[in-house]
Design goal:
DNA-binding, 13 helices, six-stranded mixed sheet, homodimer, Rossmann fold, alpha/beta, six-stranded parallel sheet, about 350 residues, elongated
Amino acid sequence: MATMKEVAHYAGVSVATVSRVLNQPQSVKKKTQEQVLKAVQALNYTPNFLGKNLRQHQTKRILVVLNTISNQFYSRVVQGIEDKAREFDYNVLMMTTRNLQKNILEAITMIQTKIVDGAIFMTTLHAEEQISELNRNYPVVCACEPVEDTEISCVSIDNIQAAYDATRFLIERGKRRIALMGVNFDLKKTDQKIHQYGSAALREIGYKKALEEAHISVDTTLFFPKGLTYKDGASSVWDILKLKRLPDAIFAFSDAGAIGAIRALKVRGIRVPEDIFVVGFDNTAMSEVYQPSLTTIGQPQYMIGLTAMELLFERISGHVTKSIVLKHELVERDSTRLSV
Amino acid sequence: MATMKEVAHYAGVSVATVSRVLNQPQSVKKKTQEQVLKAVQALNYTPNFLGKNLRQHQTKRILVVLNTISNQFYSRVVQGIEDKAREFDYNVLMMTTRNLQKNILEAITMIQTKIVDGAIFMTTLHAEEQISELNRNYPVVCACEPVEDTEISCVSIDNIQAAYDATRFLIERGKRRIALMGVNFDLKKTDQKIHQYGSAALREIGYKKALEEAHISVDTTLFFPKGLTYKDGASSVWDILKLKRLPDAIFAFSDAGAIGAIRALKVRGIRVPEDIFVVGFDNTAMSEVYQPSLTTIGQPQYMIGLTAMELLFERISGHVTKSIVLKHELVERDSTRLSV
DNA sequence: GCCAATTTTGTAATCGATTACAATTAAAAT
DNA sequence: ATTTTAATTGTAATCGATTACAAAATTGGC
């Protein structure tokens, strides 16, 4: 609660000296140091970073912008970000947007108003334009979700290839009616730039590519763009059950969605994997623990976080822009494995 | 990137006028307003909040401190916090501690250095002392986890009663060897103040109370204080299987732990609920979706968040301290229900 | 058209730190 | 002991905003 001025007065020195003791102690005499530190103790002084940051034009803080923290997936990405940030003595703050543009703009304001030195966006949807604009003047990195603007540093897997791999995996196992469960396909109607739809649109492309390669025609009645949660997965299954012919496989763009779907199928007596194969996305902890365990596309979450933070540092110090694609992996488990 | 000074110059007015246009436009002539706004546009001006906050001694931001964002449970609490915060035009930032004291101290610094106006801690373990000290000079509220210091505002359920209810529920269904899976029991050895162990210790008390009431002796070989994750639950089961006599029920302090346990039991051919009953904690989405669905203690997460934020506002504006206990509920599902 | 009352604008202090530069003090060299 | 050099400290400007107070401009009443 005390200010540096009061500390200076108490210690009988100038504020400059106090500042030096706290920031470059080697430049001040041992004895004065002690006096000052004693005063700091006595007055229970803690610096006001608003003043410090204002003067120094830097905060040593960055912001991570997420849609929701209830997605297991992000936790590990954030850990990567934090570990790398710590190396450089930076603090990591987070904000959630819950898919509302309003909240993304709020996060953007946080950067423009100099509360943080930069930001990592894991949510580009609904505000690509504004993030792009932000990126012209402030350090920005996008992670997990693709962005159209090549001026923005970005880290993610190859979503097209990943979906292609998953789809092909199912096709090779004899599946031909593969339902797709994910998000935002419908945005397509308003704009043809694919990047704007995020990873889901890319995955849809990979899916189609695999089908075409196998000469299977794309059936859009098998698309269920509800969302990524358990409930979305379950709810999509209610729709699926209305189809004349059921699909023989489901490819969900999230593990939670896949699990919600399996659960709903079970309620109707449809078995996984015997009747329908199911593949998820992200390889979250639950995909291993669920019964049946879930085949899924694993993303190198920790590495994504680490890399994103690295790119952000490069951006903060030198305005270098760079995009990196990391490797995914298909993890085969029980939801696509018929027991022998 | 432009400063207010530049805007003022461009518009041909003083900085005071610019500030007024932005903050109390009614006090400035229409025509000047337009000039200024035009300048703001032209120079793409955004205020620097460091300066503003410094001058005004407030930031309109608060910090939420969590152990981890990978716990489904917190997501909904945070939503409550955010919704209430928005009502008062506050922003909510988050930091994770991953159960490391070092990180809690980092969060505390964030408040002391005036980057935020106050904080909600959902993680008191490892730093009660410091949080208590912080609370003397800055607005602090604790949520979900109990705190010893009565000067700290706190919101949570009655953990003793909740655990009592769960245990009693099992006893009433004929279970007598009830294993406990949770965290931090062992801290007990170093200090006898129960509050320091957090909610887990309270739950242990409730558990014991129910047993004693039923004249069942407490068997500490049935305590498995590994942690709250899926893996912890599964790993505890490996230990359980080493027992001479298996328990007939498991009460886990988290849904994830309970599910991890069910999964591990299944691997060894032990069925839930036929062979063992399992009860979880928190009523997260997965408890409904898992197979078998999980009986669990539900906490009013959203309400906890809402209330915590309310208490923080009271603390920010008037140094009122208040603690609130909210109601829990026992949700019965398949993991404790023998099919007829 | 003049004066008082009111509205609008500007000047300068302020928030709490850092830091260039100057001034002082101590140590080293002669 | 005196000068030179280096180490230590202080003075004051600065970061970018807000805001009390003073000054100027406008309005209204006569």
